Amino acid sequence: MGDTDAFAKLEMELRRGVVVLATLSQLRRPRYGYELRQALAERDVPIEEGTLYPLLRRLESQGLLHSEWQTESGSPRRYYALTADGRRLLKKLTEAWQGMNAAMSRLLKEDG
Amino acid sequence: MSADDVIESYVNDVASQLPRRQRNDVAFELRALLREGLQDRAEAAGRAADATMATEFVNSFGRPDDVAARYRPTLSVIDPADGPRFVRLTWIGLLVIWGAGLLEFVGQPIPTGWDLLTPLSKWWFGTVLPSPWWPGLLVLYYATSAWFRRRGPQVAAWKPSADDQISGGRAGLLLGMAGVVVGCVVLANPTMLLDVFGEGRAAPAAYAALTYDAGFLQRQAPWLFGLVLFNLPLMAIALVMGRSPIGLRRVETVHSLVTCAVMLWVVFDGPVLVTPAGDQLAKSLMLLIVVGVLLYLAVSRYRQVRPAPTRTGGADPGASGHSPSHSPR
Question: Which of A62, B85, B100, B110 is buried most deeply by CB count within 10 Å?
Fold first, then answer.
């Protein structure tokens, strides 16, 4: 029971670290909140709506995303996409992630 | 209540906590997203969405307070790093305040039965209930220092300090020595205060209130004044050396303990001042000083760091008592 709790907490910490990168990676093209969540879940990165939707607003307020309402087809939806700053950040974060991932792979292989 | 009502209620509870400029826009988006999510859930369940399903759905989204907090930048009034110290100081301060409130009753006969309720309620309403001013003051202090740290991280950066460093430096020591000299002069002749500040026009009762009892002058006064004066050579040594080595600090600790013992002797022996009111006030102040000094010594001892491995069954290398220690200042 204790191990399960510890695992759940630590796994959540790991996931929390990649939430921003995962979100930015799926906004190279415009998506609205629910669609983005589905896209992430389909790629095995489920993010709770209660975390994802506020995150989009925070990233937008930091100038990394821009958004606009689209009301033409059916229900109104707010679409988010990367800004130029967001693209630059995504590139940097991707490189950092790949570096960390490679380093961790080496570490885990040594200990395995 | 319909599923839509549940969503409306939830969206309202979230959005009402957001800044006005983004409130309506977030509410509009959140409502659309929740409706779409609920619709998908209902389709997956093969039935129409109802209030129960909607409540379950929005609950899985998170409490409205938590979700609203995620829309805003994180705000911490007290830095998490300051949290333990804040809690510790809050409790220490409250215990001192509550204890000081009890000093008023020192020397008075202890009532029994229902009569005990009178001093207890006086203490409760006069001391305990107003005491949250202390944690309030601490919140203000820690919030301000956190703000300054965030504004100027370079200024707030950690700097090494020697274990024998004098807190306040030489200037502080000189000020302390001046304070001891002035304090001794005033203690030797307290009515001098009335001459200085009242220009000799104070009422005779005021002079009487500051007149020492003959018994006190004969028994404890020489010890007490001697101990207060003994601070001067201790401070002078530190002033000349420019530091406070371990030997000197040990002498200071013993000196503080002996002073506390003599002050307790004074408090629980005969009168200090000839008038009862003045005597009680003087004794209350002395008790407060004793409590403060003992608390300081106890906390310093408790917080002392003696690097040593935790005993895990074998011999404790730190048990020989020869590992260096570091006293927090």
Answer: B100
pTM as predicted: 0.62
- Which stretches of chain A are DSSP H helices? 2-25, 33-42, 49-61, 84-111
Contact A54 B67 (CB under 8 A): yes
Could you tell me the pLDDT band of residue B297, with boundaries at 50, 70 and 90?
Answer: very high
The better pLDDT of the pair B163, A97 is held by A97
How close does chain B come to A28, measured CA to CA in Å? 21
- Answer yes or no: do B61 and A58 touch at CB < 8 A: no
**Cα–Cα–Cα angle for B306, B172, B191, rounded to 5 degrees:** 120
The SS3 call for residue B246 is helix
* pLDDT tens readout for residues B28-79: 999 999 999 999 999 999 999 899 999 999 998 889 999 999 888 777 888 8
Alpha carbons B99 and B123: distance in angstroms, whole number = 10
Interface of A with B (CB under 8 A): 32-34, 48-51, 53-55, 57-58, 75-78
pLDDT at A1 > cutoff 70: no
User: Which residues of chain B does A32 touch, with a Cβ-Cβ cutoff of 8 Å?
Assistant: 33
Name every residue in B having a CB less than 8 A away from some CB of A. Answer: 22, 26, 28-30, 32-33, 35-37, 60-62, 66-67, 70-71, 73
- The pLDDT score that the predictor gives to residue A112 is 54
Residue carrying the six token digits 């995150």: A55
Pick from A19, A20, A31, A34 the residue to mutate for testing the B interface (most B CBs within 10 Å): A34
Q: Which two tokens stand for residue A75?
A: 């229900």
Tens digits of per-residue pLDDT, B219-248? Answer: 889 999 999 999 999 999 999 988 888 899
Q: Over 70: is that where the pLDDT of B327 sits?
A: no
Tokens 């001794």 correspond to B184
- Give the amino acid at B130: P
Is the Cβ–Cβ distance between B78 and B142 less than 8 Å? yes
Return the SS3 of B212. strand
Task: Convert the pLDDT of each residue in A30-52 to its tens digit.
Answer: 999 999 999 999 998 888 888 89
One-letter amino acid for residue B56 of the chain: E
More confident residue, B323 or B270: B270
Contact B29 A78 (CB under 8 A): yes
Pair of tokens at residue A77:
């939806």
Cα–Cα distance for residue pair B295/B324, rounded to 1 Å:
23
